[in-house]
Design brief:
4-stranded antiparallel beta sheet, 66 residues, single chain, 2 helices
Length: 66
Amino acid sequence: GIKMLGQPFFEEVRDMYPDRVNLLQIDEDETADIRFYDSGNLNLLVTRTDISKGLMKHPVAYMHSL
């Protein structure tokens, strides 16, 4: 599915980017033919400060795959 805002699902991503939150998380979806290697998701992360100011200056994209 798709998740907006909040924390990344995988702890590894949260640990690597503790000062960032999900702007968008896209999970693998076989019906829509969205694949992230074997199984995984794509996270677009922004800092809490930027999101509180309505800014998206330095997003980070992180693809997590099992």
